[in-house]
Amino acid sequence: MKFQGKVIQYGDNVDTDVIIPARYLNTIDKKELASHCMEDIDKEFVHKVRAGDIMVAGFNFGCGSSREHAPIAIKESGISLVIAKSFARIFYRNAINIGLAIVECEEAAENISDGDLVEADLDNGVIYNKTTGKSYKTQPFPAFIQNIISNGGLVESIKAGVIK
Fold first, then answer.
1. Which residues constitute the domain of residue 151?
2. Do 40 and 18 meet the contact criterion of CB atoms below 8 Å apart?
C-alpha cells in the first residue's frame, strides 16, 4: 500500500469530539460528516484538505468516545493515511474497520511538519518526507489489514469474500 500527499498536522490528544463534534452524530451521511470534520479544532480543514492528503498527529490520536463517525469523517474528507505517535486503541480498530489507513511512527510524527509532502510505503514500512529528504521506518501492514483497507473496510471485505 502506497500513499502520497501533503501533510495536515495536529498535536497530542486529538479526541473524537473534535474530529467530528457530537452535534453531527445524528447522521450517517458520509459527505455530511466529512463537511464538519475537524471543525472545532481547525475551521479551515475542510477547505484545505485534498484527496490523498496525509494527517500527522501526536500521542493518543482519536481518544474519547468510540464513535466510528470519527474515522469515517477523516476518510471521507480525503485523508488517505493518518500517521501518529500513538492512537487510542478503539479509534485504531475503528479506523481499520472502515478502511482508513493508519500507522504509528513516533519518529515520523515528530519530524514531519504541516505542509510537507510525504510518501508512505506500508508494504515495506517506510515513510519518506520528500520535503526534507528524511526516511522513517515503521512496521509494514500485515496482509490481512492491507486487504481490509484495500477493500474499503471490514464489512466490504466480508461482502467481497476476502474475509470469511
1. 2-159
2. yes
